[in-house]
Amino acid sequence: MTTTLEAPPAAKTERPPQGRPRRRATAPLIWLVPGLLLLVTARYVPTILGANYAFTDWNGLSSVYNIVGLDNFVAIINGQDSRQALVNTLVLAVTVVIAANVLGLSLALALDSAIKTRNLVRAVFFAPAVLSPLATAYIWRYIFQVDGPLNHLLGAVGLDSWGRSWLADPTWAQWAVAVVVVWQFTGLSMIIYLTGLQSIPAELAEAAAVDGAGPWRRFRRITLPLLAPATTIALTLTTIMALGIFDQVVALTGGGPVGKTATLSTVMYEQTFSLGRFGYGTALALILTLVITLASVTQLLVLRSRERQIR
Amino acid sequence: MSSGMQRYTRRTLAREILLILAGLGWLFPLYLLLLTSLKPDSQIFSAPTDLPTSLDVGNYAEAWSSADLGRALFNSMVITGGSVALLIVVGSLSAYTIARRPGRWSAVFYLLFVVGIIVPSQLGLIPLYSMMRSLGLVGSYVGIILLYGGLWIPMAVFLYTGFIRAMPKDYEEAALIDGATPFRTFWRVIFPQLRSVTATVATLCGILVWNDFFTPLIFLSGTDKVPLPLAIYEFVGSVATRWNLVFAGILVALLPVLILFVVAQRQLMRGFSGGIKS
Amino acid sequence: MLSGCGGGGGTKNEAASVAAAAAPADSGTVTLIAQASGNKPEPLAEVISSFEKKHPDIKVKAEYLPIGTTYANSLRTRLRGGNQPDVFYAAPGGGGLTSLLNLADAGLTADLTQQSWTKGLVDDNARELFYKDGRLWGVPFDRVVVAQVYNGAALKESGIEIPRTMDELLAACKTAKKQGKTMLALAGASTENAGLMASALAANYVLADEPHFNSERTEGKTSFADSKGWQSTTQAIVDMKKAGCFQKGAEAADIPQAAPALVEGKALSFIIPTGAFGALRGISPDLKLEAHPLPGVTAEGTNLYSSQSDALAISAKGAKNGAATTFLKYVSTGGGDKVYAEVTGNLPLKGTLDDPALDGLSGILADEKHVFPLIQLPWPNPEVYSELGKGVQGLLTGQQSPADVLKSMDAAWQNS
């Protein structure tokens, strides 16, 4: 899911001078009907229904179900699998968001106009972001398997003892998943930072350089504050995406070993569609929704207020 | 930073080399993908980075037929094409109405769309599944296209609205004065001016729909409408040890996006960073 | 086991009944959906073509969907949302998404009790899996046997004798490991395969002393955690791991990764349903398979699973289609089961199969006291079995202790 919360790119043309008398409406209100219909039937109604099913024991098959109050939520809190999935999801999201943004920002900064091959290198780092997460994760599954390239490489440099079945290792499996996700997300955060950097007037940095400020100081005092809008978007976007991770886990580990890499999304899918617990599944989805909404809104508010302070 | 001329020092050179090396490392998985997909069966248990002893293009033919990739490719194109067309038509019309009708109602509707961007879609999926099941839309092109329409319409409306708001009204007013109907005006005068934002909506939503695995897993599993990611998923389940075959299939599945990427990477990057003021 | 064939019941009930199933018809079209077996061609397709030869005026249009979640949700979607097949595959018992009795509860299967040919079809030990409220909701078409299946050539080469007790098995594991092979292939990342191995162990450890474990568990008189048999079952997995019984990376392997280890002879045996013979021979036609029971603590205490574990049912739409009934009748009483057995390696409903790979089972198969239906079939939901399968992985990686696994199975039992 890609969400952008800034004003979209403006048309290149200038606004015409105001003050021209307004004529009649150019667009009948009825043109909104198809869009609203799609929006309401495919997004709002199901979401509200979902919030409703979360309080039932519906099994997805029978037309009757009982209202069970908070039972599903109690079961989620008490259920080892779901609780672990919640923790996993948060840990994965924090790791991925930090790593992908640090890497993405570093790349964006390193790829300044002095680099002759910058367009090519930029494209290289961005490529994983547009490729199917599921399909590319299978390549990583091969890399991580017990007789796969990674262990071969370790063997070749004399580190045989480090070799292991990475994706079934209770300690390493979740970090292996994180590596794959970071590989996919970094390019995205990189281009967001790049776009942000392009909007910073070069004279500012040059003036600071003339004043004798070192590179780190220039970065802290000028670049980073002016990058605030890009930071807001990159952080919020990667957070939303990281909290909903599904494809990579399915392809790499299926959630194993014993739920070590399961996320809220994979458990929700398993409970709903493999075990037929629709009520429980929607309760998990409701929790996931709340987590995502809470995280993104908090981030937006905090980062936005920082943006304002900076200005 | 878009500074003018910077001096190309030895440190710049070192940085450039470092970046290129890092880039090569970054693409290593894709290199393995290509390499392994060309290996004959006899080599799949040998060292992973060994070069193929003979180039086995037969893997591609076998993956193509046993994973039914032709069918999946067709399905992906129908689903992505249909969804993108729907999003462009409905999105631009809705956004145009919102942008050109200032007032409370259009503000409310705009908010409704924008909130749709933030509300995660996961919660609605299960009820959607049962709604669509009772309408007989599970496992149909129409069902999934409408679904994607609903899923991404907030994004499309958001991008279009911002663009249209910043557009001058001269032409359309002139056209209306000439007596053209609003729809004709929109279609002949406005829509062509939206070309660049339409391209952004198409590439962004197109990639997201094309790569999506979760939605088709729920709505299209087990039908003859499975798109590429789902076909790959089912294929891997059946031949998991023959990585050469799996990778040939994956490469075929990735190819359309890789080509699009090479041809239109700037457009793609702009699409993905589309929300930032430039 | 039952052998009588539909004697007593051939009364005039049919005429007066409200049974949904129609009388068999000679012509028409039947639609069928089933889960894909991984065999090419599909064994059911062979059954269908032999049926169509006998009934040239009936056409069966079959679709095979990927096994697991895909099949389960497609089936439920189609049964609920129109586009119903006439005939479909269901798992006997209750609890699962494709479970016959679950679907019957939801009113999605037709009552077959009034069809005279169904009398005596279901074994006594499987009755609770096919009948509910005294009515029959689907028919069996094979008998699934779970065995330790050896690669004959690799076994001979290793010089290892087929173990008759668990101690011998553990010793054999060590011998095999010294030769750079493993005694067992295991798909530890597949809850199905890992669960099946644990279940096969339970046939010996649990059912030997607690033959009524399931009904006692249902009544709350015992639990997995309290059962001596289950404690030994899970401990046995730990012991087997210590003895080096499983291949390197077993905890991360899927079935498609583990099966070739047997075929290539890297692993000497694999615990699977004999119905997988077809798929294994598909990988390597010359493969010499030998099925034996997984050894118990003692040779005398060794048990075997053999039960009617697959069902075909008729939907509400199919109930009006006489040709669907004709097809079912052929499958379970007209020779269809034999065709199916020959292709897969499962046993037909009556008698046995002329396959040398099964010779090692003939003794125990004749010994009714030591033959049981799969212990997991009557469990109340699929999660219990899934916890068992995950538990095997947890025991292999050291994430769970035997007691942890049993605790989570008891917890899953409560979710229904």
Automatic annotation (TrEMBL), chain A:
Pfam families associated with the record: BPD_transp_1
Position of the signal peptide: none
Membrane topology: Multi-pass membrane protein
Residue intervals of the ABC transmembrane type-1 domain: 86-299
This protein's record includes keyword Membrane: yes
A GO biological-process term: transmembrane transport
Top-level taxon of origin: Bacteria
Entry GO terms, CC: plasma membrane
Keyword Transferase attached: no
Matching PROSITE patterns: ABC_TM1
Record family assignment: Belongs to the binding-protein-dependent transport system permease family.
Protein name per the record: Sugar ABC transporter permease
TrEMBL record, chain B:
ABC transmembrane type-1 domain ranges (all copies): 73-264
PROSITE patterns: ABC_TM1 (PS50928)
Organism domain of life: Bacteria
Subcellular location: Cell membrane
GO biological process: transmembrane transport
Gene Ontology cellular-component terms listed: plasma membrane
Mode of membrane association: Multi-pass membrane protein
SUPFAM superfamilies: MetI-like (SSF161098)
TM ranges: 12-34, 72-96, 108-129, 141-163, 197-223, 243-264
Record's signal peptide: none
CDD domains: TM_PBP2 (cd06261)
InterPro entries assigned: MetI-like (IPR000515), MetI-like_sf (IPR035906)
Keyword annotations from UniProtKB, A to Z: Cell membrane, Membrane, Transmembrane, Transmembrane helix, Transport
Family: Belongs to the binding-protein-dependent transport system permease family.
Name used for this protein in its record: Carbohydrate ABC transporter permease
